Amino acid sequence: MRLPLRSFCVFGNLITQKKTAAVQWRGLSGAAMRLVQFRRLGDGDGIRVGVEQGEGLSVVDLKAFDPSMPSTMRELLELGDKGLECAQRALASGQCVVDRTHIQLLSPILAPEKVVCVGMNYRDHCLEQNAPIPDEPIIFSKFPSAITGPYDDITLPSESQEVDWEVELAFVIGRRGKHIKEEEALSYVAGFTVANDVSARDWQMRRNGKQWLLGKTFDSFCPLGPALVTTDAVNDPHNLGIRCLVNGDTVQSSNTDQMIFKTAALVAWVSKFVTLTPGDVFLTGTPPGVGVFRNPPAFLKKGDVVECHIDQLGSIINRVI
What secondary structure letter does DSSP report for 267? Predict the structure, then answer.
């Protein structure tokens, strides 16, 4: 979002603070949009990029509006402002609209270069397990092959008996950067979406030397969606209600204001070690209420339906098979 300009102030330090805040919250194109990836029903494997006319409404087909535009979100982000400005024009035109009932919604990002995950990043989640507040971000990863769509099935692997849920705020990188300053970091973020960091606790906590990767990266263990909501469309990503429901029962309910390391800090920290590229996905941690810390512990079983919801972003709903 763009911060509104406040009353003129002659004091130089206040002006400087405003300029810094404007840099932090500036989106890539200044456009408030809900970007999606989809497949037209009956169109085989053809992937398209679109813009929702509103949450849950019909979608403007970007490539139908402008054939020069790419077919995937990652390629669109690689175009920078040019791609997002075209998406804004397409949305404003009201042309090339596809009815929601004629599409299959996919993950807003497929095959990113990186899926960066953050552990122990909610204060209330640390309290839940009597763990200290981390001094620096705890970073791990999922393989990109774990990503699945907002309404696709979660497949229980035969290798695990302790598959758990984790609703998370995710964000997607919009432009390339290394050693990014925290005060400039949000200008590298294309937008936000909803994630479920599905986790096999037996593999995460007891197997494979207690390395987290294998327990986090089974196929279908990263549902994402329903849309990539651009930064300018989110009032404050660090003040959003965040919930997870299993079979209609609320199991997690918190607010993203509980995050210890917020979006800008995470971008700055991770970019010290690796170059961030358009399409990279960050999962920012989960609030309390996960199954493993319940008494007795509770895990997902076949037939369960998991809904992860974040205010202003929407819901992903996945059946367990």
Answer: H
Structural tokens at position 294? 């319940």
Q: How far is CA 260 from CA 39, 90, 123, 133, 196, in A?
A: 37, 38, 6, 8, 19
**HEC sequence for 70-117:** CCCHHHHHHCCHHHHHHHHHHHHHCCCEECHHHEEEECCCCCCCCEEE
CA angle, corner 36, sides to 276 and 155, nearest 5?
85
Q: Which residues of the chain have pLDDT under 50?
A: 1-25
> Closest Cα partner for 169 from 196, 132, 198?
196
Distance of CA 24 to the CA centre of its chain: 19
Q: How many residues in total does the chain contain? A: 321
Q: What is the pLDDT of residue 27?
A: 53
Q: What is the Cα 153 distance to its own chain's centre?
A: 18
